[in-house]
Amino acid sequence: MLDRIHIINELNTLSPVVAKLPFSPVFTVPEGYFTQFPEKLMQKIKKQGDSEVVSELEEISPLLASLQRKTPFSVPDGYFSDFSSTLYPESEIQTAPVISMVRAKRMKIFYAAAAIAAIIGLSSLFFAMNDHKPTIQDQVNVVAELPKLDVSEMNLYLQSSPEFVQAEPLSLAGLEDIDFEGVINDLNDEELKQFVNENPSLHIENMN
Amino acid sequence: MASFPEDKELLSIFRDPLTKEKGYTLLVRKYQEKLYWHIRRLVIDHDHANDVMQNVFIKVWKGLDNFREDSRFYTWLYRIATNESLSFLEQEKRKASVSYEDVSLALSEKLAADKDFDASKLEWKLQVAIQKLPEKQKIVFSLRYYDEMSYEEMSRVLETSEGALKASYHHAVKKIEDYILNS
């Protein structure tokens, strides 16, 4: 910054007319403006520094924004300083058991082996159950169904079931020894009529 | 006139979190009048000058933490004040959709509307003559004639070469002389 004399000397070389102009302020400012300006400015800066929440509230409700944002409740003396100790009293703090990671790893191996063994066992059982062979009961059922088959069906069945062909043929031995006449004589009329109806191919020669 | 700490001391007071507000208030008190008159001569109206002043010092508050001490604090403040004044005039032009000449005319009218205005007095004639200058010459003349700023400092404020500033000042003085002699 230069002094006034330097400026006037320079002006004298450029324009003596301008150099001689009165150097007095023409504008005025409101009284006390410079005294109050720093304080007003600081207030404005603090207001601008308030959070967006406050500005938003001022827009929505100037009444709410004008209220003191102070919670009216009180807490007992020393509440916050003692708070952490009330959460976990030392007497109640229990040490958690230490679990060996090595043991857990071994157990996992055992569990895996047991699971594999169980899968193998169950699979074997499943296949064993599905490997079905005809039982005596099945054979009896088949025998019961035989009379319903015609000749061609019977041949087809015997060809597809060789074990049945090799089996001992059903024997009629002994049937000739049955005293049919005696049996028939023991039947009453109704039973006899039913027998004849059920066995039309039987020819009874010696009926009295 | 009140005495204020040196800029370096003011900055260290400001940078201490415990004394930040105190440092800032001292800084405002030290420079407010100089900056106000610089702004007022450019925008003429007090209310406008007050608005610009507030914007300037708010920018100072926000930017002071990053201020590099290798540049002079005083020229930094003037640069902000000049730029803010020019931004304000630019906004006025846009609002009214008028040219700089129209704004200059409007400023002359504002000057004439001042309660103390007296067209016969030389000091008021000088103000009218200044308002008729092109924008850059107006700023250069104001900084040199009123703020007694060296061309070196002015080149830092306006980021213009000292030679160009000298030429601007020379042209400004001649135009003012011409107005005073012929009005």
Could you characterize the architecture of this molecule?
The complex is a heterodimer of chains A (208) and B (183). Chain A is mainly alpha-helical and 208 residues long. Chain A has twelve helices and no strands. Chain B has 183 residues and is mostly helical. Chain B is built from nine helices and no strands. In chain B, helix 1 packs across helix 2. Chain B is globular and about 55 Å long. The mean pLDDT of chain B is 90. At the A-B interface, helix 1 and helix 3 of A face helix 2, helix 3, helix 6 and helix 9 of B.
Q: What keyword list fits this structure?
A:
heterodimer, A: 208 residues, mainly alpha, B: 183 residues, 0% strand
Give the count of helical stretches of chain B: 9
Quaternary organization: heterodimer
Q: What is the C-alpha radius of gyration of chain B, as a whole number of Å?
A: 18 Å
Note the overall shape of chain A.
rod-shaped
Strand content of chain B: under 5%
Strand content of chain A: under 5%
Share of helix of chain B, binned = over 70%
Task: Give the SSE layout.
The complex is a heterodimer of chains A (208) and B (183).
Chain A: H1 4-14, H2 16-19, H3 33-49, H4 52-60, H5 62-66, H6 79-87, H7 101-130, H8 136-145, H9 151-160, H10 162-166, H11 180-186, H12 189-198
Chain B: H1 7-15, H2 20-43, H3 46-63, H4 73-96, H5 100-113, H6 122-131, H7 135-145, H8 151-158, H9 162-182
Helix pairs in contact in B: 1-2, 2-3, 2-4, 3-4, 4-8, 6-9, 7-9, 8-9
